[in-house]
Amino acid sequence: MNDTELLKIEDLQTSFQTKRGVVRAVDGVSFSIAPGETLGIVGESGCGKSMTALSVMGLLEKNGKVTRGSIVFDGQDLLALSSRQRRSMCGDKLSMIFQEPMTSLNPVQTVGHQVRETLMVHGQVKTRDDAKARIIDLFRQVGIPDPERRYNSYPHQLSGGLRQRVMIAMAMACEPKLLIADEPTTALDVTIEAQILHLMRKLSREHNTAVMMITHNLGVVAEICDRVCVMYAGKIVEQAEVHELFRNPIHPYTNGLLRSLPKMQSGQERLYNIRGMIPDLVNMPAGCRFAPRCDHACARCREDEPQLIDVGNNHLVRCFCRGEEDRHG
Ligand SMILES: Nc1ncnc2c1ncn2[C@@H]1O[C@H](COP(=O)(O)OP(=O)(O)OP(=O)(O)O)[C@@H](O)[C@H]1O
Ligand SMILES: [Mg+2]
To answer: Minimum-distance ligand to the CA of 229?
Structure first.
């Protein structure tokens, strides 16, 4: 394993069999995450962010399958593991948190009990008393006030923000090398969102945990990510370090996402909307998938598919019109 690559995804294609035909939810995605790095995956609803994550976790629904490519995590080819080996890795070296913690927590068990199960299953603690002490410490680390009392709370007795902190505690309990967070703050209000993002950043730094942060919000990316992949209709259209991307966004889709971010200072009256919708994944347009919505599209864009090109500074872009020439011309 290369020490800059804890997770290395190459040419990943994930397909679903549906009545209407094959849906290529993820179509030729490649990226890697270094130990301790936070990588953002950003894009509109339906562009394949969650399916990329679930492909890594081995949690695709029955009609879905990785149909091409490779996923190597911590030196191991995940696609070659049995589902049992895969499960033992997940939760141990690899954890995931989801958008709505209420649906991932069991409503009839106390949160302390649930975190304890996770710890015991993965052999992190020997006795129940050890477990309890460790969990109370974890709850304290994730900023749950009065952790001794919260240990015995049921999920519905906690606010959304506290439930998400419990999920983070559970995900961090086994000190994973990689944490995949799928829209972990979307269901929360903005103040709580900021606190949770700050907490994730802090934990990732303290434990050198790599994070794959899935979000539709570039504001979240700016807040905590080191690098970012912008996805559109199952493909990466732009990838760069966060500062580079914000300073020099090239793909028209990325520019559209940036223009749709609210800006406090500018006094802008209406938020920008990228016109149109993402294409039907069963009937993908020829050429560039973004062309039907793009203000810069030319004839070539509607015929040929652009490749992901390195324009320098580790900045990759999949666009004919705004790539190399535009940057230098
Ligand atoms: N079980 C399934 N069967 C068929 N299609 C599926 C299935 N699961 C997901 N898809 C399709 O895969 C595509 C990508 O979905 P995915 O959930 O990865 O999007 P996303 O980027 O996470 O969107 P969101 O921001 O809404 O969470 C969508 O078009 C979705 O309809
Ligand atoms: Mg999703």
So the answer is: 1
C-beta of 61 in contact with ligand 1 (< 6 A): yes
- Return the higher-pLDDT residue of 159 and 89: 159
Show the domains of the chain with their CATH numbers: 7-93+174-328 (3.40.50.300)
Q: What angle do CA 95, 99, 105 make, to 5 degrees?
A: 70
The helix/strand/coil state of 281 is coil
pLDDT in tens, 144-170: 999 999 999 999 999 989 999 999 999
Q: Distance between alpha carbon 259 and the CA centroid of its chain, in Å?
A: 21
Helix (H, G, I), strand (E, B) or coil at 61: coil
User: What is the pTM (predicted TM-score) of this model?
Assistant: 0.93
What tokens appear for 232 in the block?
């559109």
The DSSP line for 202-253 is: HHHHHHT-EEEEEES-HHHHHHH-SEEEEEETTEEEEEEEHHHHHHS--SHH
Q: Give the type of residue at 51.
A: M
Distance CA 293, CA 289 (A): 9
Indicate which residue's Cα is closest to atom 18 of ligand 1: 48
Token readout for 79 is 């696609």
Choose among 120, 128, 104, 130: nearest CA to 174.
120
Question: How far is ligand 2, taken at its centre, from the CA of residue 250, in Å?
Answer: 24
Residue 42 in tokens: 């950003």
Pocket test for ligand 1, best of 17, 45, 54 (most atoms within 8 A of CB): 45
